[in-house]
Write a structure and sequence with these properties.
Elements (H helix, E strand, L loop, with lengths): L8 H27 L5 H20 L1 H5 L1 H21 L7 H11 L2 H23 L4 H86 L5 H28 L2 H4 L3 H15 L3 E7 L7 H22 L3 E8 L3 E8 L11 H12 L3 E6 L5 E8 L4
Parallel strand pairs: 1-2
Antiparallel strand pairs: 2-3, 3-5, 4-5
């Protein structure tokens, strides 16, 4: 079973035009048979009405709309009734034109072309039989109609495919921009939280700690007889201690979770483990060099690129293994994602790779991709250890 495609306003108009054209041509054959007093007028009228009824059943029957097999049987039934009409009157030749469109719409590309050729030959042969002789001019109408139908339908299908491709690209671009904006916002929030945490730690917390130490020293130097002064100093020292504890809680709350609870290496290792558990792929993580703290924006960018690259490997590469390597060098940190999948042409990549490159270049880094069809993929993102 295949679901019927959703009709656009343009396709609805074309469908109704096809319906009206077929009905008009059947009516023409009927009127001419009755007007000319043809001895087969009754049979012609019956064949035309039967053809119209069989044709109308297609759009009305749910199974014809949802099943390709049922639609093909319906197309065969319409064709057989048309052949009966064609045998009875030469005016049935003109009904071949809407049948061309019907065949090209319902059948695959190659089979549709064959059906159109067979229909055109049947129309030409029947017309020649009704005329009692064959002249080349008699073949021009059906053949030209078949050529026009093929050109119109194939041209429309090409335009529709291009429109769908552009729509998918626009949706992908919109989603990528949204992800990039969200990631940049998250990176900015984390960077601001980190800055505030450092500011509180280096100013308020240090100042309160100094006040507490000074008050403790003053408390020890006061004579035992200065009870009120000692009590006030104790109260001031306790207030400083309480505010110091509160400042430290602010620092802990503002520190980025990725820096407090785990490291970039741990996050990437968990990412590989999760990919291996959820998908049919062996994902390994490797750490090289001595780990050093990185700016928050750098860690967020590398983690997001690792997630996107591994997700692309799982979805599109059909790979059995993938290796994620985080390397700390003298001046740079590098993230490399290597897989043994089907590969692709980097020159024809989508917006996902463009978003990765934009993210890295915004941090004064470099993104490189080495791949070709059938040879796997190597993606490498390199960033300086310090902010640009």
């Amino acid at each position: 079973m295949t679901a019927a495609p959703v009709l656009t306003p343009t396709s609805r108009v074309l469908t109704w035009c096809l319906h009206l054209l077929l009905v008009a041509l059947l009516a023409l054959a009927t009127v001419r048979a009755v007007a000319d007093g043809s001895p087969e007028a009754g049979a012609i009228v019956a064949a035309a009405v039967t053809c119209a009824v069989v044709y109308a059943a297609g759009p009305l029957l749910p199974r014809v709309r949802t099943s390709r097999r049922a639609a093909l049987w319906w197309l065969v039934a319409v064709g057989l009734v048309w052949l009966v009409l064609l045998v009875l009157t030469a005016d049935g030749v003109w009904v071949a034109f809407p049948l061309y469109f019907l065949q090209l719409h319902l059948l695959p590309r190659r089979q549709g072309l064959v059906a159109v050729i067979v229909t055109a030959l049947a129309a030409i042969t029947a017309f020649a039989a009704h005329q009692g002789s064959f002249v080349p001019a008699a073949a021009i109408g059906p053949a030209l109609g078949a050529a026009v139908a093929v050109a119109v339908v194939w041209g429309y299908q090409a335009l529709y495919r291009e429109s769908e491709r552009r729509r998918n690209l626009i949706e992908e671009l919109t989603a990528t921009r949204a992800d990039l904006a969200e990631a940049q916002h998250a990176a900015g929030v984390l960077a601001e939280r980190e800055r505030l945490a450092h500011e509180i730690h280096d100013t308020l917390a240090q100042g309160l700690s100094s006040i507490q130490l000074l008050l403790r020293a003053a408390e020890r130097t006061l004579p035992d007889t200065a009870g009120n002064a000692a009590r006030y100093v104790e109260q001031a020292r306790q207030a400083a201690a309480d505010n110091l504890a509160e400042a430290r809680r602010f620092v802990v709350a503002l520190s980025p979770p990725a820096l407090d609870d785990t490291t970039l290496a741990d996050a990437l290792e968990r990412l590989c483990a999760t990919a291996g558990d959820r998908h049919r792929i062996t994902a390994r993580f490797r750490l090289e060099g001595d780990v050093v703290p990185l700016p928050t924006a750098h860690e967020v960018a590398l983690l997001r690129i690792g997630q996107a690259a591994l997700a692309n490997t799982v979805r599109h590469a059909d790979a059995s293994t993938a290796e994620v390597t985080l390397s700390y060098r003298d001046e740079h940190v590098t993230l490399a994602v290597v897989d043994d999948g089907v590969g692709f042409d980097p020159e024809r990549s989508g917006f996902g790779l463009t978003a990765m490159r934009a993210r890295i270049e915004a941090l004064d880094g470099i993104l490189t991709v080495e791949s070709s069809p059938g040879d796997g993929t190597i993606l490498s993102a390199r960033l300086p250890k310090e902010s640009p």
